[in-house]
Amino acid sequence: MRLSSFIAVSGALWCTVYAADSNLSEPLSSHQILPSNFKPPQVFKNANLVRTVNLEKSFVRETINVIIENTDSKPQDQYYIPFPADTISKVGGLQVRDKKNTNIPPFKTLVVEYDTYSSTQFYRAILPSPLAPSAQLTVSITFHILSTFKPLPAKINQQDKQYLTHTFSTYFLSAYPTTKQKTKVKFPSSDIPDYSLDPDRQGSTFNYGPYNDIAAGAAQEASVRYEFTKPLIHATLLERDLEVSHWGGNLATEERYWTTNLAAELKEQFSRVQWAVTQHYSPPTSALRSLTVPLKPGSMNPYFTDDIGNVSTSRFRSSKKEALLELRPRYPVFGGWKYSFRIGWDANLRAFLRTLKNSEGGRDYVLKVPFLEGPKMNEGMSYRKVEVRVILPEGARDVRFETEVPLVGVEETMHRTFMDTVGRTTLKLTAMNVVDESRDIPIVVGAPSICAPSFNWNSNY
User: Fold this and answer.
1) Which of 370, 57, 66 is CA-nearest to residue 240?
2) Using one digit for the tens of pLDDT, what is the confidence trace for 219-243?
C-alpha cells in the first residue's frame, strides 16, 4: 500500500501497520502451477494499448497503459500477463495499478504457469473489485527486465565505443486480443546504426504502429543495435543490514556488494598508461570508474572497504540538506571484471523512528527505513538478489511490516552479538531482480513494545 508521510505518523498509521495480518510467513509473490491444459480465459480485450520500451539505462524498463474491457457476461477480476519462459526469471518490479486513481495501492500479482516446460508463463493480476460486463478500466503495467542486452561486438578496445543489441516484439505479448496498440522505444542517443522493420524514427525515439486487431499471443520480432558507451553495472548479490542501536539513538547501515560489469570485454590486455592519459579529459567508457551514493542528511562516519582492506579513494560530503558518498574502486572495472566491496554509515535514529501511545498506556514503536539505498548512477544499476536485514533491539516482539517492494522471501530470525542474552529480533526480506529505481521505497516496521530493561530509546524520544 502507499504509505503516508512518516512525519505525519498517527494512531491510524500504527493501526494499519500493527493490526494487519502478519505477513512474516508468506512472500508477496508466489509460484502456482496450473493444469497443463490451462489457458487464460478469454474474458477481456485490450481496447487501446500504448507501450513504452525504455533502453536508456543498463536494463529494460517497460510501461504499458491499456484500457481493458470485460467481454464476458459475468464480472471478472483476474487479468493475465504472459512472458516468454526464458524472460520471466529476469522480470522484476512488476506492478499493476489503476491509471486514473493513483491513491489505490498496486493490485496483487501472482506468478503462475500452465506447464513446467511451457514456452510461456504468466503473472496474474487480481483487480481490487470485479469489473462488470462491458465495463472498462484503464490500467498501468510497469516492470523491468535484467541482463537482456548483448554487446556487439562482444570485445572492444579500451577506448572504443560500445554498442548493444536488443531483440523484442513490436506487439505487446498479451493473453487477450487487442483492438489498437502502438509501441514507442526510447534510446540513450540517436546513434542507432542497425535496426529491423521500418519504424517511424524521431531523433532517439522509434515509433511502431499503430496496429489494429491483434490476436492474443501474437508477436512481431524486431531488433536494434545502438550506442551505449557506459558500464552495465550488475550486482549478483547485495546484503544490506540496518541495525537499530540497543543502547541509544543510532541507526547503523552496512551494505555488502558483489558486482560485475556486463559490458563488452577488452579485446587486448588492459593498458594502465592509456587509462591514466584518458583521466585528464574523461571520455565516455564502458568501464566502471566510480560510484555515487546519495545518503540521508545527517549521515556520518562512512567507510568503504573491499577484500584487501580500507579503500582510501573515496570522498564524503555532508550538510543539513544532503549527504553524498563518492566511491572510486581500486581499479577500473571493465566488461567481464568483478569487484566486491562494502560500505557503511551511521545516522540519527530520530529521523527514522516514531513512538505512539497505545490503549494500554504503553508505547508502540514504528520504524521507517528505505528498502534500498546504494549507488545512484545515470546508467542505472541492477541487482539479481537483495537481502535486507532489519535488526531490532533485544526484546522486540510481535513484529509487523509493510512495503511495496515485491518480495520472494520473508523470515524472522535472531541475531546475537556482544553482551546479548536472548538475541535481537531480525526481519529478513529477500527480493529478486531489483533496480536502483526502487531506491527509497520504504519498509515500515512496527513493534508494540521493547521489553529489554537496558533499552535506551526513552532518553531520545
Assistant:
1) 370
2) 999 999 999 999 999 999 999 999 9
Q: Is 186 exposed, middle or buried (0-12, 13-18, 19+ CB in 10 A)?
A: middle
Dihedral sign (CA 439, 377, 380, 209): positive
d(CA 382, CA 316): 24
Q: What is the pLDDT at residue 229?
A: 95
Q: Which residues of 135-172 are buried (b: 16+ CB within 10 A; e: fewer)?
A: eebebbbbbbbbbbbebeeeebebeeebbbebebbbbb
Write down the pTM of the prediction: 0.86
Strand partners, 195: 224
- Whether 415 contacts 424, CB under 8 Å: yes
Low-confidence ranges of the chain (pLDDT < 70): 1-38, 113-117, 359-362, 449-461
Q: Which residue has the cell 500479482?
A: 109
- pLDDT (0 to 100) of residue 121: 85
User: Measured between alpha carbons, how far apart are the two ends of the chain, in Å?
Assistant: 27
Separation CA 417–CA 395 (nearest Å): 14
Contact 318, 300 (CB under 8 A): yes
Q: Among 120, 13, 141, 12, which residue's Cα sits nearest to residue 65?
A: 141
Q: Are strands 76-84 and 120-131 parallel, antiparallel or unpaired?
A: antiparallel
Give the pLDDT confidence score for residue 454 in this predicted structure: 44
Alpha-carbon distance 163 to 197, whole Å?
Answer: 19
Give the strand pairing for 353-357 and 363-370: antiparallel
Q: Looking at residue 36, what DSSP letter applies?
A: T
**Are the C-beta atoms of 401 and 17 separated by less than 8 Å?**
yes
> Peptide bond preceding 210: is omega within 30 degrees of 0, i.e. cis?
yes
Helices (H), 206-307: 272-278
Q: Is 276 helix (H, G, I), strand (E, B) or coil?
A: helix
Can you give the pLDDT at residue 398? Answer: 82
Contact 374, 293 (CB under 8 A): yes
What pLDDT, on a 0 to 100 scale, did the predictor assign at position 32?
55
What is the H or E stretch that residue 57 is in? none
CA 63 to the chain's CA centroid: 15
What phi and psi, each to the nearest 5 degrees, are found at residue 17? -75, -45
Assigned C-alpha cell, 68:
481493458
CA-based nearest residue to 446, from 425, 417, 431: 425
Summarize pLDDT for 342-397 with one digit per residue, the tens. 999 999 988 898 887 776 666 778 899 999 999 999 999 999 999 999 998 887 77
The whole-angstrom separation of Cα 368 and Cα 346 is: 15
Residues 359 and 351: their CA atoms lie apart, in Å, by: 25
